Amino acid sequence: MTSEKMNQGELAPDFNLPDIDGNMYKLSDQKGKKVYIKYWASWCPICLAGLSEIDELSKTSEDYEIVTVVSPGHNGEKNKEDFIKWFKSLNYKNMKVLVDESGKFIEDYGIRSTPTNVIVGSDGVLVKVAPGQLNKETLDQIYKEVQ
C-alpha cells in the first residue's frame, strides 16, 4: 500500500478518542477511508436539527465514514456523564459520538464555532474545516471531489 498523498494539504491531526460506550476510535487507523467528522454540542439548536440526518447518513453512506465529536466540559457543553445520559435518551442508533474531554480536538482543528465540519481524505489529509451546517447533498458533492 502506498502512502502517497492524493489530496492537497497537510495530514489531519491524529486523535484517539473514546465513543460514548468506551470504544476507542483512532483517526490514523482509518487510512484508506474518507472520513467526515462533525463537531457539535448539545446546546446548539442547528446541531440538534441536523442529528437525525447525520444518524441516517451514518447508516447509509458508503462513500465516507461519519463520526461526530463533542467536548464535555468545554465551550458550554454538559459534563461527560450528563451528556451521555442525555444523548442516549434521544435514541439515535447509527451515529458514532466521540468524547473529547481534554479539548485537544478543538485546539488541533482550530474549532471556533458549533457545528464545525472536518473533511479528511482517504490518504489522511485534512481537506477542509468548515463551520456551519452541511446537509447530505453538500457532503456528497464535497466527497465526490475528495480522494
UniProtKB/TrEMBL annotation:
Domain Thioredoxin, chain residue ranges per copy: 6-147
Membrane-spanning segments: none
InterPro entries: Redoxin (IPR013740), Thioredoxin-like_sf (IPR036249), Thioredoxin_domain (IPR013766), Thioredoxin_ResA/DsbE_sf (IPR050553)
GO molecular function: oxidoreductase activity
PROSITE patterns in alphabetical order: THIOREDOXIN_2
Coiled coil: none
CDD domains xrefs: TlpA_like_family
Protein name: Redoxin family protein
Organism: Eremococcus coleocola ACS-139-V-Col8
